[in-house]
Every structure is written in structure tokens, then in C-alpha cells.
Amino acid sequence: MPRIVIIGGGFVGLVSALRLAKAGHKVSILEADSEVGGLAGTFETNGQRLEKFYHHWFKSDTYVNELVSSLGLNGHVVDRSSRTGSYYANTIFRLSSPLDLLRYKPLSLFGRIRLGLLVLQVRLVRDWKSLESITAENWLRKQVGNEVYGKVWGPLLKGKFGEMANKVSAVWFWNKLALRGGSRAKDGSETLSYFKGGFAALTQAMVNEIEQAGGEIILSEKVDDVIVEENKVVAVRSGERTHPADLVINTTALPIFSDIISRHVPDEYLQKLARVKYLGNVCLVLQLKRSLSDTYWLNVTDPDFPFVGVIEHTNFETTELYGGRHIVYLSKYLPTDDALFLMTDQEFYEFAFPYLQKIFPDIGQDDVIEYACYRANYSQPIISLHYSDILPAHETPLDNLFLFTMAQIYPEDRGTNYAVRQGIEASDYLQERILRRAVSATPD
């Protein structure tokens, strides 16, 4: 039986390991962090696990719903209507329904209509490849005009992608809107899902199933290199430890993967991987004595504000889980060499909090029980023009090493649902090769 090593214990790695182990294969996950989950990693507060980076999923996310069902955990899913809004010109506007949109005063009546019609225009796109040569900015200006772009979408794109905003493909934005549109009911309301006990409870359920099926998960095991013989990986190296392997799946970000294989593949392949660029993320998690508002997701379209949103998690999940504390996320995407990314936790908090007070003047330092900053080096692949031309294949120059990462989730954007899908595809991909090899080894 082949020994399968999976590098990375995020959702792609966990799902692929779960399916492979249940199919009877010998599987090991090597995870550099002290816990599994990847970007869905958690920390503890009041005896409860809470995501370092805000998480939820949409009702239309079929893959994650099927995963939960396969684990027999449907009763652990919480569905709630989301309350969204927008902050513009020192005012908070509710934007949870079509009626809210018609009341959105920052736009002219014509602008409000054009903004509302964008959902229909998104549905009319039959071939997303037709958008690959168009930037999100140019496509949006054509669809909704300069007023709507300047007051709504432009600031959000700039807030998320910074100086890279004008390089983002229309495919990325189109898919974001298509996903949100697919999660809305006929009356325009949106229902989001969360897992009781947080995503840590979901990942732990997968860990339990993997181990029960005979798989193993090794934490704090950073992969440094692979040992290659005759163009095949025979072992994966982590410090002084080696893990024998017959088949290997890498699920880590492309720059990490490049470092692991750099001595064993042609420079041309490494250069192709390097064409995919990433943004890092700093997420400030505040635990407050009181609520900021009744809005779960507040988009910030003020160009002077460094965050594109204020996410009040406890307007989605109950405060009772967190000892009555109100949980708020402030998230910032940026290059990892940016001064903000390199700040200490205290420096970042002191930078960010005054901006929060501009929106919510009543909040004070004495309302903050505690805070923490979490960072991810490779949080968002930048979907550039003609991304399909630079999209890495699952095959690599090494015969038994395969690549399944969030940078390959295209045209969809990275997210838990599509990470689950990648895990399914990775396991199916390997099992097909195992079967093919078994058939070819069978004597006539």
C-alpha cells in the first residue's frame, strides 16, 4: 500500500486525508503550525475556540455542507440572517435588503438603480473567460458608472488590494458577486452559516475521523525539503526527521512550496510559480464590553479608512459563548513588507483603534477587555488578468508530487467551501493514479 504524505493541514489537506484514509490508504499530514485549520485556525477565549480570521459560509456552499453532513454534524450548523451595512461620509447605512438599497442616500436614485441591477448583470455573464482580459475597475465602471464605482466598489477594491487594485481581474469580482447573489433569498435577504463551537470543532471532527481510519497528523512539523531519487520523492524532510513517501500532495502556498522543492526542479518551473502574487493579512480581534452596532458586516467605503470592513462576530453568533464579550474583527490585506504588517500587536492596535472610534465615537479604550493581532503571509492570491495562463497545474516536474492549493481555486476565490472541493479533487486525483498504477502492475 502506498504511503501518502500531505504537506499542510488546512481544509484542503484535511479533506483529502479524510477521504484517502477512509478509502484504506496510509496517510500522514505534516502541519507546520501547532494546530490544523490553516486560515481557519483558532485561539481560545472563555473556554471557547474562536477563529483568528473571521469565518462563515454561505447557504449556497454545497461542498462544506456536504462535508458537515458526511460527518453526521448537521445539528451543529447555525443558520442566521446576516445584517450588513455601509459606512460612508460619517454615516452608517443599512444594506441588508433591496429596500435598504433604495434608501442609500450617498448615491443618486439612478446610481442606486444601477447598483441594484449589477446583480442581474452578473447573472447574464455566461462565459467568465470573456472577463479575463478586463480589470475589475474597467468592468465595473462600464456596468455601474463612475458614481457607483467611486463611492462603492472603488474604495472597497482599493481597501482590499491597495496598489494592486487596478490589476485585479474582473473574473475575481464577478465571482464574488455571483456567490453572494446565489446565497440570497427571493426577497433579497441573505442567510449565512456558522459551526457551533467554531471552525475548530469542525476541524477536530475531521481529525478524529482521520485518526480512526488509521491516518496520522503530525503538528509543529515544518517541511524543509524533499528527498528525490529518479525524479520521484522518496521522503519528505522536516528538520532532522524524514517521512518516507510514495505519493505527496502539497497544499501550502506557492512560495512555501517553491522553497521546499527549489533544489529539485528546473528554474523555469519556480519562475512560473512566482508569477502568482499574494497579499498578507493582519487581523485585529477586539473583545469588548459592549456592542458597536447591530450590524454583522459593515463595509467601509471611506477612502481614508485603512480597513474595508468592521465585522462584529457576536451579531452573528451569541455573546453567551464568549462570556458576554462582544467580538469584533478589523482585517487589513497588505504586502508582508508593509510597515503595518511589521508592527507589533500594540502598535497595530494603537494605529487601528482611532479609526474605529471615527465610526463609533462612543467606544473607548476602557471598553476593550483584550485584543490580539493575527497575521498570515499568504492570505489572498491576486487574481490578475489572464490568470488561467499562469495557473499552476496539479502535476509538478516530480513524478509523484502533486499540487493542490488555494491559488488554484479558479475562477472561484479562496474560501472554506472551495478548499473542501480542492480536498475532494486531490483525493480523487491520487486514487485514480493509485488504481492506474495497480492495473499497470497486474500481469497479463
Structural class by sheet pairing and helices? alpha/beta
The radius of gyration computed from the alpha-carbon positions, rounded to a whole number of angstroms, is 23 Å
Report, as a whole number of angstroms, the end-to-end distance: 21 Å
Main sheet attributes: strand count, strand direction, barrel closure:
7 strands, mixed
User: Helix proportion of residues, in percent?
Assistant: 25-40%
The CATH topology annotation of the largest domain reads as FAD/NAD(P)-binding domain
Mean pLDDT, rounded to whole units? Answer: 92
Note the beta-strand portion. Answer: 15-25%
- Under CATH, the homologous superfamily of the largest domain reads FAD/NAD(P)-binding domain
User: How many helix segments?
Assistant: 12
E-strand count: 20
Major sheet: order of its strands?
Answer: 8-7-16-17-18-15-19
**Number of individual domains:** 3
**Low-confidence residue ranges:** none
At CATH's second level, what is the architecture of the largest domain? Answer: 3-Layer(bba) Sandwich
Question: How would you describe the shape?
Answer: globular
CATH class of the largest domain: Alpha Beta
